[in-house]
Task: inverse folding
């Protein structure tokens, strides 16, 4: 059938017939349900008669195409829709329908705002849960740095000094005039690059992205980790029982937090020697956790003092060390107080448990799983779905970008399991 023979009412039928049965947009259309959108965004539209707005489902389908095929620019996306019949079919446009302008896409995105994109993302998460794709017991967490939509030359010292004149660059002393929400990163491989960071949480069984947060590039993963887990457990009601992450999360407060939540941690220590320094050596003394004391080989007790700078000092009392026959071969002595003492990290229990767990085969398997699954998602997002660079400026708009990337990646997982 030639295109000029197709009437307006038959155009969608014509487009339907030329789409291959195994074409990915056809598969995506089968699993994508956006019928809830009109109710969700009804308050985003004015009741006054103005220029007809883009229908919400059409708007999201346009964005999905852009992120699915890695089209970085909205203007380029609209140009592709003009000439691509498959795109028109997926969006629901007839051959002679007018395509929204790229500026209309921008205005609609700004009108909806971050909250709407979050609601759409969470709705799709609920559909994954209903279809049995989201188990929620195992979680893998990680973060990745990506370039901001800003040039390094636009980073200046707060007092006005240019970047090229500065010797020491710090987020406390420098700001990017193009995008103040992005920051310079001091990490090797990213030096003097204006960046954002995306913090992901995924389901370990299905690789469904359950949560993410965009921060400045200099934000440490461990500072937001507890909030991520609370969100998964208490807001999304996921039955989290174990968490896997890399050594960037290997801090005492994180181990303690997970232990308090009843969650098994597969997170290697950031430093294998942490808590084992010279002044933390017990030299044969035995720690009794139930009593929180040390007992020396001669049977003397070392009592805990008030913790200071993350360390608890345990000392003997009553001058018993001065008359001890093995004093010269014992633990270090406080020369001023004439007392023996041992320093113990306040997270020593957690460190010892993780240090022992790191020797198990299961722990090594979890590390391999982490690398394959979540780092694979980052690579996929950067190579194919526009995560290599921010499309917009400002943290809220970049968060919207990552919402769309996560939605597209989740839809790909849904298509995979539905096949």
Result:
């Amino acid at each position: 059938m030639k295109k000029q023979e197709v009437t307006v009412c038959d155009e969608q039928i014509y487009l339907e017939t030329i789409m291959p049965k195994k074409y990915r947009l056809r598969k995506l259309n089968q699993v994508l349900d956006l019928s809830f959108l009109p109710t969700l965004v009804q308050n985003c539209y004015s009741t006054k008669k103005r220029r007809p707005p883009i229908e919400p489902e059409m708007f999201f389908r346009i964005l999905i195409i852009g992120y699915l095929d890695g089209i970085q620019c909205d203007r380029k996306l609209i140009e592709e829709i003009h000439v691509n019949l498959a795109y028109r079919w997926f969006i629901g446009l007839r051959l002679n329908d007018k395509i929204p302008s790229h500026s209309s896409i921008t205005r609609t995105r700004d009108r909806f705002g971050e909250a709407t994109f979050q609601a759409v993302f969470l709705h799709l998460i609920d559909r994954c849960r209903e279809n049995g794709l989201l188990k929620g017991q195992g979680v893998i967490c990680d973060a990745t740095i990506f370039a901001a939509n800003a040039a390094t030359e636009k980073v200046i010292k707060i007092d006005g000094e240019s970047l090229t004149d500065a010797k020491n660059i710090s987020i406390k002393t420098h700001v990017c005039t193009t995008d103040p929400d992005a920051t310079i990163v001091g990490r090797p491989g990213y030096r003097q690059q204006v960046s954002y960071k995306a913090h992901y949480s995924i389901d370990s069984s299905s690789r469904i992205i359950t949560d993410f947060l965009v921060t400045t590039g200099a934000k440490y993963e461990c500072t937001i980790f507890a909030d991520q887990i609370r969100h998964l457990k208490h807001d999304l009601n996921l039955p989290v029982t174990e968490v896997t992450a890399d050594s960037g999360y290997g801090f005492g407060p994180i181990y303690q937090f997970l232990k308090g939540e009843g969650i098994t941690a597969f997170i290697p220590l950031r430093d294998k020697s942490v808590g084992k320094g010279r002044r933390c050596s017990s030299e044969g003394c035995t720690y009794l956790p139930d009593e929180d004391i040390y007992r020396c080989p001669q049977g003397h007790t070392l009592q805990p003092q008030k913790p200071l700078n993350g360390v608890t000092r345990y000392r003997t009392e009553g001058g018993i060390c001065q008359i001890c026959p093995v004093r010269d071969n014992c633990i270090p002595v406080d020369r001023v107080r004439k007392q023996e003492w041992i320093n113990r990290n306040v997270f020593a229990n957690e460190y010892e448990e993780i240090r022992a767990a790191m020797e198990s085969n299961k722990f090594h398997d979890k590390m391999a799983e982490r690398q394959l699954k979540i780092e694979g998602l980052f690579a996929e997002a950067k190579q194919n779905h526009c995560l290599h660079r921010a499309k917009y400026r400002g943290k809220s708009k970049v968060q919207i970008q990552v919402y769309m990337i996560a939605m597209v990646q989740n839809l790909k997982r849904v298509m995979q399991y539905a096949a």
